[in-house]
# Entry
Amino acid sequence: MVSGKMAKLVLFELLQFAGLTVPIFVVMQRFAAVLWQVQQDMKPPGNSGIAYWLIVASSIAYVATTTLLVWVPVKYLLFRRSGFFRQSSSWRPVTLVFVILSTLPCFAFFIASSQVQIHHDKVYDSFSELPVSLVLLSLVCVDVIDRIRPWRLTGQDETGMSADFPGPVLVHMETVSTVTGQLGDHRDESWTRANGSGHLHRYNGQCLTCTVACESYPDGCLQWLRVRDPRSEVFVSRFLFWLDTVEMLRVASLPFIYPSVWLFPIYIVSYLSTLQVIAAPQSPWLPSLSTWLQDFPFLIVRIALIAAFGPVTPVLYLVKNLLVTLSFVYFNYITKLRIFHMEHML
# Structure
């Protein structure tokens, strides 16, 4: 019978491999369809069938080659913790391989398809729905799988981070020696909760004074709302995190931006934002990468887009990029200047 750990391993590996291959097949098929439509509109029509199936066959050959020569060896070395992957606690080799082998070719075909359509003065497909969403969904899935891999999929969280039991919360404990304790008085004393002060009880002749935090709790019928689990929070946080990149790619699909040169900086900064998944969640490089690879480039591009086309992107994302960049620079660099080390400063 297959163990739970083996089933989880197989499930995760299949999902990551699907995230690696499926976007490439879909994007290259749509690119082949664009070439087919272009050749059909040519006078005289070109032999579109050969070009279509040649691109499809190339996608299959590319996936097979990269899987055998790169993906499988990296996975093997990572599981064995050998060679270059022996110490990879601050970065994630799987996501590095993923953004190079899958995300980068997909973005390259997005740009190539736009250039083909611009050359023929007709837009057949802006790749705004399924292809772009599928590429980002695969990136999110690979990111979530790497983050949730240390946890169990069934039962309670092994780390105990999700425990949120109702009742008093122990915030302080100290041992106090008493005369009655030395005389062996083992009288039971119950909890006292006066103004949230605490309780007093005895253990082996010692008096343990505990201070508890007094909280007001909801009725019993609402206790099911007082739950928290980091495994579910990973899904929420990662999808919310990538909404900024989703909005940037949505702007690229607008009819007056897609057939223009503005497509290049949009896709370039969008791909740069995906590179931050290389850093592990506990890596000290992650805050810097998040700012300099996403918020700061997005801020520059959004200001330029608004100056050229007007409010094509929501102001909310512009303010978010601005505040994140300014707060990061201020609290990490400016506050370390000597002028801020004076005692009268807040």
Notes: The longest strand covers residues 169-176. Residues 160-174, 179-216 have pLDDT under 50 and may be disordered. Residues 4-154+237-338 form one domain. DSSP finds ten helices and three strands in the chain.
